[in-house]
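Box 3.1 A note on notation
Throughout this textbook, protein chains are presented in two layers. The first layer is the amino acid sequence; the second is a token string describing backbone geometry. Keep the layers aligned when reading.
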Amino acid sequence: MEDIVQQVGALLLGAVPTILLFVVLVAAYQLLVQGPLNRVLAERRARTEGAVENAHKAIADAEAKASEYADKLRLARAEIFKMREQRAKQRNAERDAALDETRKVAGAKVGQARTEIDSETDRARQAIQGSAGELANQVVRAVLPLAAGGSR
């Protein structure tokens, strides 16, 4: 058994340089590869998360601007509608005023025409009445000689 212990001891003694070399290699890996790699990955993760955050902020800003634009557009449309309505009311008022004026003028002309027609009618009646007596005399003169000649 001593022999086995000596062989294991010699084996372990021979493995010490390999173990030291392995420990140095692991430390060098940690120092030269793993540390910089972890820093680069952390930086990459931070940049990615920052970019995602910035993208979310940009989206929120864009939505806010779109909402603001929609509000301004809605207000502008409402203002345009009000202006159209106001112009339509103004045009209707002007049209109504023009129609009233035209009706007044037409009413005045109709009244004047009625007055003229009434005066012409009165003149015609007077002329007819004046000539009715004369016509009656002419009829009597025309009928009397016939009546006088017929009784003979």
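Helices lie at 2-151. The chain has a mean pLDDT of 90.
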